[in-house]
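Lecture 7 notes: from sequence to structure.
We start with the chain below.
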Amino acid sequence: MKSGLIKRILWIVCAIIVLFLSYYICRVLLFEIHGMNQFPTFLFVFGLATLLISLFAFSRKVVICVALGYIVSFTFAMLFNADVYQNESLYNNAWIIWSISYLLIIVLGIVIELSTRRIQKKQIDKNCQ
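Predicted structure tokens for the same chain:
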């Protein structure tokens, strides 16, 4: 019992550190690349909330996808962004790519977690019969 609690606390601490380091790298160190003030913080808060919810459910795959998905989705956004002219103003679609790819990575983690649990449940049911 105590070992399981220590593992869970270690997962929580490591995942939050990875997410915060990703946020710090994107928000502070690479600010000149994207120039966004509030959006990285908003995405970090969303990721932190999702991370805490998935930690209570103790779904490791979702935790990994949330923690690493922040920096991976930022990389996608910086690789595939484009400037768009609309109503005589210049817009950049990096924030759209960043948020959608982050959501897709989180959903991918949820799908993987649910499918693994379903497979494990089928194996347990098969072994019980």
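Points to note: The chain has one domain: 2-128. Residues 2-128 form one domain.
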